[in-house]
Amino acid sequence: MRRIRYHSYGGPEVLALEEAPVPVPQSGQVLIRAEEIAANFVDTQLRRGLAPAELYPRPFPRPLTGDVVGTVEAVGPDTDPGLVGRRVAASTEDAFADLTVADARWLVPVPDGLGAGTAGALPMVAPVALGTLRAGRVARGETVLVHSAAGTIGHLAVQLAKVLGAGTVIATAGTAAKLEFARSHGADIGINYTDEDWPDQVRAAAPAGVDVVLDATGGEILRRSLEVLAPYGRLVAYGAASGELGSVPVADLFALRSVTGYSFLAARAAEPEQALEDLAELTRYATRGRLRAAVHARLPLTGTAEAHRLLESRAHQGRVVVVP
């Protein structure tokens, strides 16, 4: 079978297509033949050596993470044989290959008629969007600010904020086209975060302040987001796309603001039963048309380097996927 690996840090050109033996599922695992594989932005940072090492330790040679939609071909020992032949979605550490293994516990059964684009969001990126909103304790009628609202997770967070009852959703993005994309997915207001006065624009849109901010950029965006929080407002940090985690002066918290972090893997480890319930809940939203994942581009497995170039260009709206 074919798979993608990289053996050193560098640009997309270090991604190599290799021949490899078919992996053998172990106890509790399944073997999936991929139909589509959705790429994650964090892998572009890992590939360049820019991701914070304390958050993402990885040895060489490195595979690429991703969200796979496909069909179960085999199961490991002590694993339900009835899974063979099922169409499923799974988030895996070694996704970019013709076949991959995944933990059977975290498989998401794909309902009939659900497209691969949205199905591929269910194992990981949709739970992240939902988890950040819950970490921010979004209440009905509140104002939510979603940064990078045209991105892989951002455009799902916009939709889920509305599902959870947010009154106003403010989206930030870097271009007019992306802001229009965010509005088409439910955002009420769009603001270009490349404008120096974007916090003033947020305050004009929400004079009483923003109740919840979701941020995966870090750095200066995170610091300036504190300025727009309402009293008792909550900022949820769940990434560092800028390459800088950022820091929060304790004095800023005395203004009745709070900052919390969110990690998908940490949340799943802390509350596995809740995580499984979230997967079922998100699947219901998807089948009822309340949650849809946009696909910006579909490329062949041999075009994985181009997929990374698209992600790094920040030109994409929604997900970038490859088709083996």
From TrEMBL:
Gene3D superfamilies hit by this protein: Medium-chain alcohol dehydrogenases, catalytic domain, NAD(P)-binding Rossmann-like Domain
Keywords of this entry: NADP, Oxidoreductase
Record keyword Oxidoreductase present: yes
Pfam families per record: ADH_N, ADH_zinc_N
Domain Enoyl reductase (ER): residue ranges: 10-322
Presence of the UniProt keyword rRNA-binding in the record: no
InterPro entries, per database record: ADH-like_C, ADH-like_N, ER, GroES-like_sf, NAD(P)-bd_dom_sf
SUPFAM superfamilies: GroES-like (SSF50129), NAD(P)-binding Rossmann-fold domains (SSF51735)
Protein name: Zinc-binding dehydrogenase
Species this chain originates from: Streptomyces catenulae
Source species taxonomy: Bacteria, Bacillati, Actinomycetota, Actinomycetes, Kitasatosporales
